[in-house]
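Lecture 7 notes. Example A: sequence first, then its structure tokens.
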Amino acid sequence: MNTRAAKPAAKAAPPDTVPGRVHFDLTTVRLFIATAESGSITRAAERIALAPAAASRRMKELEAQFGVPLFQRLPHGMALTDAGRTLLAHARSVAHAVSRMQDDAQAFRHGDKGVVRIAACTSAVLQFMPQDLQRCHAAYPGIKIDLQEINSQGVLQAVSRGVVDLGIYESTQGGLALPALHYHEDRLVLVVHASHALAARRSVRLEDFLPYDVIGLTQGSAISTTLARMASEAQHSLRMRIHVGSFDSMTAMIAQGIGIGLMPQAVAQSFAGGQAFRRLRIDDDWAARRFTLCHQPAAAMSSAAMTVAAMLCPGEFANRES
């Protein structure tokens, strides 16, 4: 009788679960982005034409493959976790890259057609882009523009992550190791209510208006950042207790005598041109500003994006190409 212990049966080979390897399709990427933007798996499913049950299953499988939760399940929706916020930027890059592939294929099939994604600061959008994009549309009606209006810091982030083709920002806010062109220039003015103590003056310097309450724009805006830097260099405190999200809102605050505000001259003429306001020249060099257009490397740009860059900065682009 054989008394030797029987060898244990060999275990079945585990399925293909190589650490770090994930498998998902573009539908899942679009679902992840839509869920993050809408805060609801149900609304996200409707947006991309999926059944809610299928969408929920896809999201759970995606989280299982990455091994981290991407969302917090709340009673009235879904909120991104820290991991989800980080991976969302990558998901948007993937979706953008695929869209660029489609645009390039369309451009090769039909010529100068496609979608060009631009991120631009508010000052550039209000002052320069309507005229520049009108020229572009007249010359190349087959090119569509997807324009995101954000502050200068947001522009730099969008370009560095590759989620836009072109970015336009105020030049003092930094730069990227990417091709850059001079775009436009403007000058800041001080806007005050007609009853303000400074209203009788025609021009001011930094030290003249720092003692007063200033209405600031949201964090990351070039104007607020520049003003804070100049006040610090002058070793003077900056009285900026209210931040607003637009020049419209800033004008409304000034109209009520809550504070004063800085705007580009052309914007001030449009938003604060009535008799209730006074626009004062700022006699400091920092009030003159330059805007930069930066773009992805030429090898990563669609022909449509290169065309729009050349239309927005014709002289600069021609000089660089020559």
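Example B, a different protein, same format:
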Amino acid sequence: MSVKWNGTKLLKTIAGNEAAAAKFYRDIAAEARIGEKFFEILATDEERHEKIYNALMDKHSKDIEVELDETDAEYMDSLIENNLVFDEMLIENAKKLFSKDQIFDLAEKAERDTVMYVVELQRLYPDLASDEMNIILKEEKSHLKMVLDRKKENKMNVNLML
């Protein structure tokens, strides 16, 4: 059975994630203990992406319904409902309590989720700003690779200290 599913909540989730990730990255970049300039670069990209998603919401809020199989709609709803939120408490704990490995784990989770959300957005709305979505997907994959490379580098440095 098919149901009408409104993609506004997906766009809102992605835009919210981009804003929260930008804040998380910026706060982590400012933390002297971690001090990764690289996080500032990620934050700047995420802010730009958030603006694109918000513009898409403004432009397409009335025409973003799509017919989905009921199971697919439930899957999308579940993804959105179980979204990791970078709230103030998580960011403060990350700055004070988390190790660099844990910071990279959170960044990896954020980037993996974003890649997944963008792929789903493209699947559901292939004509929705396809050029912009392709660029964002490429950038998000690049972010994920950079985080994974930094994570690997950090582990090698820790192992050298042992």
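Note on Example B: The helical segments are 8-30, 37-60, 70-81, 88-96, 100-124, 130-161. The first helix runs from residue 8 to 30.
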